[in-house]
Amino acid sequence: MPHTSLRPFSLLSLAACAALLACDGDDDPGGGGAVTKQDAGQADGKKDASDDLCQEIGKPAGCDLCGELGWYGDGACDDFCSQPDPDCGGVAQPSASCRTAAAALLAELGPLSSSAGTVASFELVDALSDHELIRATMTPDPDAEPGSEPEQWMINAETLGGDPCLIYGAQLVSQEIDLQDQGGAPVGKPSAACSDAAKAAITAVADVDGQSPALGAVELVDGFSDRELLRVSLTDDDGDADSYLVNTESLGGDPCLVYGLQLRSQQIDLRVGTR
């Protein structure tokens, strides 16, 4: 509920105001009018921010804002809702836990990939058992040329039957190269800048997943122009060996941008176009 400062006035005036229930200009005990769709959209995927909005309307943390505020079926598509909004024309949505994990990962990868903006919408492209293939469309980069298409990420997630949701891969659609490599001898040495960027991206994924793998050797699997496809070996929290394939671009030096990464043991197709 918004706080309205009161100028000093008489006790009689205060009593009259209270009797009219007009002191704060809000006759909704839950304070629902204080939370807008813009607020909810900006908080999407950010648990602390969403919980704060729930508390603002007098509801417990983790509440369904769209349900509490009557936004389902109100004639406007609200793709930030916890449940599918009928107004979105039947576009399938990822699970709430994977939306949260995907948004958290993209917040980490944005600076590494120079993918500006925030998530504008999520879509569940495909699902297999507990795996979800998610398309995240970003708001246009304010510095992009007029008419530029918004960036899209494809994200490979697994719900494990609920919460938490683990992220196994992410690929910037406009910068796809082959992340389905099945092995083979390295073709040379990676640049130091891209080795560091690849490790930073893997660490970002691990942080979102609540993991802390031990990272090992970085190999250059393939390269062309300023692009480097890297394989980063790791040992996971259970002591099992695995590796990430990481799509990078060195831009002739530093910085090196990360456009995609995929855990080899959990590969699903990150190159899906349209449904």
Description of the structure:
This protein is an alpha+beta fold. The protein folds into two domains: 28-88, no CATH class; 97-266, no CATH class. The protein has helices at residues 11-19, 37-43, 47-56, 65-68, 96-113, 192-209; strands at residues 119-128, 131-138, 152-158, 166-172, 214-224, 227-235, 241-249, 257-263. A hairpin with a 5-residue loop joins β6 (227-235) and β7 (241-249). Mean pLDDT is 79; it is low at 1-32.
Main attributes?
alpha+beta, 2 domains, 8-stranded antiparallel sheet, 6 helices, 8 strands, disordered N terminus
Structural class: alpha+beta
Give the helices and strands as they follow along the chain. HHHHHEEEEHEEEE
Question: Residue-averaged pLDDT, rounded?
Answer: 79
Tally of DSSP β-strands: 8
* CA-CA gap between termini: 42 Å
Number of domains: 2
Proportion in helices = 10-25%
Low-confidence stretches: 1-32
Seen as an oligomer or otherwise, the chain set is single chain
Taking the sheet with the most strands, its summary is: 8 strands, antiparallel
Could you give the order of strands across the largest sheet?
A: 1-2-3-4-8-7-6-5
How much of the residues is beta strand, in percent? 15-25%
Shape: globular
